[in-house]
């Protein structure tokens, strides 16, 4: 079973309006695809902001193909944080019923967040980025935003041959 099929199995009984059915973009075809696309883009911008504070060049990547005007390194790093930040945030907002039909609108052959929906998502996204947890390996408290910055720093250390890169792995 694919990741999105498992997600649909979870949502099917209590939240059928949030089934993904099939991952669609440009435009997203339903509320779940709309949430995924919007939050992925917020995460992407956050990572770009953190990359710009390092000497790393955001167009040079190791996982995604490099294309003109594409900051592929941010896409690479986002793969680490999508399950940790985006997916968990979506599940939290849905299961706590923070989103409803007023948060989405059908237009231009797609489904998009309304202004109210965007405001709710951004507020929760910021709350998530600023929330903290105890990092076992570093033996200190990190916010999720600091964790993203730390991941960028680890890549800098790797490329400058100071330390071998070990990707962040969730332990909880």
UniProtKB/TrEMBL annotation:
GO biological process: defense response to virus; maintenance of CRISPR repeat elements
Record InterPro entries: CRISPR-assoc_Cas1, CRISPR-assoc_Cas1_C, CRISPR-assoc_Cas1_HMARI/TNEAP
Keyword annotations of the record: Antiviral defense, DNA-binding, Endonuclease, Hydrolase, Magnesium, Metal-binding, Nuclease
Keyword NAD: no
Pfam families linked: Cas_Cas1 (PF01867)
Taxonomy, superkingdom: Bacteria
Residue intervals passing through the bilayer: none
NCBIfam families assigned to the protein according to its UniProt record, in alphabetical order: cas1
Protein name in UniProt: CRISP-associated protein Cas1
């Amino acid at each position: 079973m694919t990741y999105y099929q498992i997600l649909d199995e979870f949502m099917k009984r209590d939240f059928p309006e949030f089934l993904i059915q099939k991952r669609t973009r440009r435009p997203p075809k339903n509320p779940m695809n709309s949430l995924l696309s919007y939050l992925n883009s917020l995460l992407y911008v956050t990572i770009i902001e953190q990359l710009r504070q390092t000497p790393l060049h955001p167009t040079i990547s190791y996982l995604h193909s490099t294309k003109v005007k594409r900051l592929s390194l941010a896409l690479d790093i986002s793969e680490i944080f999508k399950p940790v930040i985006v997916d968990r945030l979506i599940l939290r907002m849905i299961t706590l019923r923070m989103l409803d039909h007023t948060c989405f609108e059908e237009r231009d052959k797609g489904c998009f967040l309304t202004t109210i929906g965007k405001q709710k998502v951004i507020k929760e996204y910021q709350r998530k980025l600023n929330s903290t947890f105890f990092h076992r390996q570093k033996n200190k408290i990190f916010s999720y935003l600091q964790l993203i910055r730390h991941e960028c720093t680890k890549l800098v250390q790797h490329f400058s041959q100071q330390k071998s890169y070990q990707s962040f792995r969730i332990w909880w």
